[in-house]
Amino acid sequence: MSRLGRNEKVVTLGVFALGLAAMSGILIAPLAFAQQAAFTPAAQLSHTVSIQPNDTKPVYVTMNSNDYINAGITHSSTRNQADVIINQDGT
Predict the structure, then answer these.
(1) How far is residue 91's CA from residue 82's CA, in Å, rounded to a whole number?
(2) pLDDT at 49
(3) Exposure of 41 by Cβ count < 10 A (0-12 exposed, 13-18 middle, 19+ buried)?
(4) CB neighbours (10 Å) of residue 57?
(5) Which of left, alpha, beta for 63 (phi over 0: left; psi -120 to 50: alpha)?
(6) End-to-end alpha-carbon separation of the chain, Å?
(7) What gap in Å lies between CA 15 and CA 34, rounded to an integer?
(8) What CA–CA distances, in Å, run from 80 to 48, 49, 51, 76?
(9) Using CA atoms, how far apart are residues 74 and 67, in angstroms rounded to an integer?
């Protein structure tokens, strides 16, 4: 078993660190930059007035406020409030 001198230890450690940096750059960096977030159409719609039904029958509630809406969904809070249009096929 041979012993390494101080300079050999520094050089060996430096080569090891460079190898680790190169491997992380090769393996991790392309994955981080290549992945795209999945686009999911989403909306949070609400009605500005609380509705309290008097019986157990279903109640029709028009959503007149767009709290959150992204490009995957179209909803007008002023015209045709009952229409929620999903703009992405397969969703």
Answers:
(1) 19
(2) 86
(3) middle
(4) 6
(5) beta
(6) 65
(7) 28
(8) 16, 18, 19, 6
(9) 13
- The Cα 46–Cα 67 span in angstroms is 7
The pair of structure tokens assigned to 73 is 């969904």
pLDDT in tens, 18-63: 887 777 766 666 666 666 666 778 888 888 888 888 889 988 888 8
Q: Which amino acid is at 25?
A: G
DSSP, res 55:
S
Helices and strands counted in the chain (H then E): 2, 4
